[in-house]
Amino acid sequence: AALLARSVLRSAARPGPARRGIVSGPPQSPLGPAETLVGFAAMFAACLGPAAWVLAHLDDYRKRE
User: Fold this and answer.
1) Rounded CA separation 12/4 (Å)
2) Distance between CA atoms of residues 15 and 12, nearest Å
3) Higher model confidence: residue 61 or residue 32?
4) How many CB atoms lie within 10 A of CB 26?
5) Distance between CA 10 and CA 4 in Å, rounded?
6) Where are the bilayer-spanning segments (predicted)?
7) Hey, CA dihedral for 34, 36, 41, 42, is it positive or negative?
8) Where are the domains of the chain?
């Protein structure tokens, strides 16, 4: 009973989650075309780079059998 009371009191004494700095609306400084292009290129390389590496070296992986 003491453990139950302690856990209830602990959760009641603790305030809710801290407010985050989330702001809705348009960005204060919009991205330019160069920054957008760099972002797309980085995402493209991060997602498709490893797959391209494996496909390019597929014969090397088959020869190791």
Assistant:
1) 12
2) 7
3) 32
4) 5
5) 10
6) 37-56
7) positive
8) 33-65
